[in-house]
Amino acid sequence: MNQTEKQSSAADKTPHSGQPVVGVIMGSSSDWDVMKNATDMLEQFGVPYKAQVISAHRMPQDMAEYGAAAYDSGLRAIIAGAGGAAHLPGMMAALTEVPVFGVPVPSRYLRGEDSLLSIVQMPKGIPVATFAIGEAGAANAALHVIAMLSMTNATLREQLRAFREKQTNTARAMTLPPAPKN
């Protein structure tokens, strides 16, 4: 997978305006189907991001360089998705002071439960905010990042409020089919 970069003005009050403020990384291009849910959400809110493959096992030097440069390059959050042993989110958290949001990607044999446990069981002092396995986890990781960024960006905060209000109104408008008559 090639690197994907989207720029927007929604994060105007973040450092390096116009540059990516969120890194979306994954261990393999096969993780893209899940991680695209994070980038879709970031795009919906106009948050500039850069998505790329950074494998903890196959590219350890690249991973270390990415983590070391994350803050100075303008990143204020990293969404890291990984399957299997899922070392990427935890290793990235150990390499940078930028908050890391871990997304367990479903694995072939254990449905992502191995990934979830690997990401959530970080040792004291190296936190990774961990989300649900799969698509919902990727979208929620992005929403959590958006909420964090909105604390210093009134425009983004208003977009998030509107998004949540729309969800609420959609749920309130839901109807159930009539109960069958016995």
From TrEMBL:
Give the binding site residues for substrate.
Answer: 28, 31, 58
Q: State a single Pfam family of this protein.
A: AIRC
One MF term from GO for this chain?
5-(carboxyamino)imidazole ribonucleotide mutase activity
Q: What is its EC number?
A: 5.4.99.18
In the record, the note on similarity to other proteins reads:
Belongs to the AIR carboxylase family. Class I subfamily.
Query: Its function?
Result: Catalyzes the conversion of N5-carboxyaminoimidazole ribonucleotide (N5-CAIR) to 4-carboxy-5-aminoimidazole ribonucleotide (CAIR).
Source organism: Advenella kashmirensis W13003
Report what the protein is called. N5-carboxyaminoimidazole ribonucleotide mutase
For biological process, the GO terms are: 'de novo' IMP biosynthetic process
The organism's taxonomy opens as: Bacteria, Pseudomonadati, Pseudomonadota, Betaproteobacteria, Burkholderiales
* Polar residues bias spans: 1-11
InterPro entries noted in UniProt: PurE_ClassI (IPR033747), PurE_dom (IPR000031), PurE_prokaryotes (IPR024694)
Where's the PurE domain?
A: 20-171
Q: Keywords assigned by UniProt? A: Isomerase, Purine biosynthesis
Which reaction is recorded as catalysed by this protein? 5-carboxyamino-1-(5-phospho-D-ribosyl)imidazole + H(+) = 5-amino-1-(5-phospho-D-ribosyl)imidazole-4-carboxylate
Region named Disordered: 1-22
**Pathway it works in:** Purine metabolism; IMP biosynthesis via de novo pathway; 5-amino-1-(5-phospho-D-ribosyl)imidazole-4-carboxylate from 5-amino-1-(5-phospho-D-ribosyl)imidazole (N5-CAIR route): step 2/2
Look up keyword Isomerase and say if it applies: yes
